[in-house]
Amino acid sequence: MSEMNTKDFLIGSLIGGIVGASAALFLAPKSGKELRSDLSEQAQVAKEKTNQFTTTAYEKGNEWASYAKEKSNSIAKVVSDQSTQVVDKVKEATSNLKSEAEEAVAATEEIVGDLAGDVQNASEEVIESVKKEVDELEAKVQAGNNA
């Protein structure tokens, strides 16, 4: 909004200056030849000022364009560097998770192996116990049949 007010003010000032200068020339008591000469001089001055403003605007535009290009390049580099760091961290975390998962699988297999051995030992003890009880019952049954 501030740019628009400044722009409008400058345009208004320029137009006001031109109208004022023209009015002063036309209302001044001069001959036609002098008036034409003054108008020609004023037109030449206005043309030179316009060329100066154009040149200045062009130079400033180029400066701002190069500044914007530099800033966008530096921002792009920073973003690229940071994204590379993030990718590296993700790869590292993935690698760590993979190794931890492999360790967990190995530990689980070891625990399962130990449990299988314990179950086998326990089942052998149960089988022995059951055989012993069956033998005792069989002996009682035969003793009862013999009596």
Can you describe what's shown?
By secondary structure, the protein is mainly α. The chain has a domain at 31-105. Helices cover 96% and strands 0% of the residues. The protein is built from two helices and no strands. The longest helix has 115 residues, at 32-146. The radius of gyration is 51 Å and the shape is rod-shaped. This is YtxH domain-containing protein. Pfam families: YtxH. Keywords: Coiled coil. InterPro entries: Desiccation-related_membrane, YtxH. It comes from Halalkalibacter alkalisediminis.
- H and E string: HH
Mean pLDDT reading = 83
Classify the beta-strand content into a percent band.
under 5%
Helix content: over 70%
The 3D shape can be described as rod-shaped
Alpha plus pi helix count:
2
- DSSP strand count: 0
**Rounded radius of gyration (Å):** 51 Å
Unreliable residue stretches: none
> Structural class of the helices, strands and pairings?
mainly alpha
Report the span from N to C terminus.
122 Å
Strand count, sense and closure of the main sheet? none
Describe, in short, the structure shown.
It is built from 2 helices and no strands. With 147 residues, the protein is an all-alpha fold.
